[in-house]
Design goal:
The protein contains three helices and twelve strands. By secondary structure, it is α+β, with helices and mostly antiparallel strands.
Length: 213
C-alpha cells in the first residue's frame, strides 16, 4: 500500500512538472513569435507609458506613437521625437529646436524600444506563464532575469491571444519601482521607407545639432 501511494504521488508530481514545463515552453514560443513578427513586419502603434518610482508612488504618464521596422524605430511624443536607423539615434527636442546624435548601447536601446527590451532579456531570463496575472484576452507571461543583481527584477508581458499583438510590458526594478507600456491601435505590415528612421534636418529650420558620438 505504501509503495502504491508513493508511486501515485510520484506520478502526480511528474505530471504537474511536465504540465508546467509545457506551459513554460509555450510562453517562450509566444515571445519568440512576437519578436519574429516584429522583425518581419513594420509596426505602428499608439502607446501610453506610466512610471512609478515605488509601488505606492503616484504615476507619471506620457503617450505617443511608435513606428518599428526590424531594429529601426521612430518614437514620437509631444516634446520629443526619436529616430533610430539601426546604428545612429537622433533625439529631437521641439522646445529648444535641438537634436542630439548618439550611437546607443544595447542597454540604452532597451530603455526606448519595447521589442529591444524583450529581445535583450529573452536569452537572459526564465520565461514562464504568470502565476498571478490572468486575462481572458491576453497571454500573461513573466520574464525573470537569471542574474539576480540586474536592475530589472521582473518583466511582465501580455500578448493578445487572437492576433498575437503585444498588449503591454511592465518592468519592475529591484527598488520596487515600475514602468508599464500599454499599446493600442496596433497596425502590422505597414509600408515605411527606411528614410523615415533618419532625422532630416532640412525639415527643422535652424536646428541645433549636438553630435555626441
Amino acid at each position: 500500500m505504501f509503495n502504491k501511494t508513493v508511486f501515485i504521488l510520484g506520478f502526480v508530481l511528474f505530471s504537474i512538472h511536465l504540465s508546467w514545463a509545457q506551459t513554460n515552453a509555450e510562453a517562450e514560443q509566444i515571445i519568440t513569435s512576437l519578436l519574429s513578427d516584429a522583425k518581419n513586419n513594420a509596426i505602428k502603434t499608439n502607446f501610453k507609458l506610466a512610471i512609478g518610482e515605488k509601488s505606492n508612488s503616484p504615476l507619471q504618464t506620457t503617450s505617443g506613437i511608435f513606428i518599428i521596422k526590424a531594429n529601426k524605430f521612430v518614437l514620437e511624443m509631444d516634446e520629443i521625437k526619436v529616430f533610430f536607423d539601426g546604428k545612429t539615434q537622433w533625439s529631437y527636442l521641439a522646445k529648444s529646436n535641438e537634436v542630439s546624435i548618439t550611437e546607443p548601447s544595447e542597454k540604452e536601446l532597451a530603455e526606448t524600444n519595447p521589442m529591444a527590451i524583450l529581445s535583450s532579456f529573452k536569452s537572459k531570463s526564465t520565461i514562464q506563464t504568470s502565476k498571478k496575472t490572468k486575462s481572458a484576452q491576453n497571454y500573461c507571461i513573466e520574464m525573470l532575469p537569471k542574474i539576480k543583481n540586474q536592475d530589472i527584477s521582473k518583466i511582465e508581458v501580455q500578448v493578445n491571444k487572437t492576433n498575437g499583438n503585444l498588449f503591454s510590458i511592465k518592468l519592475i526594478n529591484k527598488k520596487g519601482g515600475s514602468s508599464v507600456l500599454t499599446l493600442n491601435g496596433f497596425q502590422k505590415g505597414i509600408k515605411v521607407n527606411d528614410n523615415a528612421f533618419i532625422f532630416d534636418k532640412t525639415k527643422y529650420k535652424n536646428v541645433m545639432e549636438n553630435d555626441l558620438r
